[in-house]
Predict the structure.
Amino acid sequence: MAISVLDARDAFAPQQMRVPAVATPTTSRRIPVAVVAAGLVGVLQAVGLLAVALSGLDDVLRPAGRPAGWLAAGALVVLAGWIVLCAGSAAALVDGSGRSLLRGVACAEMALVAVLLVVATIASVPNPTPVSLPALGLLALAVPVGKLLLAGAPSTTRWIAQGPRTRVRRPDPVQAHRVLATVTLGAIGAALCALTILAPVPAGQAGDPSEAVFTQD
């Protein structure tokens, strides 16, 4: 009888299912080399464009060869946007937010280089460098092609698939040490006021208008 009761209890009792433990793969947040290289290329390209813009700004603004105002303003806006897109796309790739912006900028740069080569060939633009125009075109294409290759690497794909990196929220030091920040700001202001009031003015630099009058014999 006892055996039959135990059998009946086992028949109506819910069966316990053993689910095998599935090992979740650990995702590494170490930035791949391809992502770092693509980010460096984008940042260096932005810095190079900024340096070229600053060095050629004086030649553009000279009265002799100054272009129309709207043309100069449009060129500056396009160049500024290009610089921001280069740096921003590189930062988005390193952060893991995405690579579509980097690919779009690289494709636009390739199209721009191709159009400039066709225009320079048709219009017979003089080449101020000893390097031929096709060689210059290949050198210019190396940057966007390199960015596309680095953005399409398998390690870059896995990095983007992990998603953006988690941000560690840190407390604001000014809010945490408000009294110290206020005292420091007041001390700096008092020091500047004391320096302005108590510092002696050297002779000959008092700003007297009569000193700026020159007489001619």
Remarks:
- Residues 19-28, 209-217 have pLDDT under 50 and may be disordered.
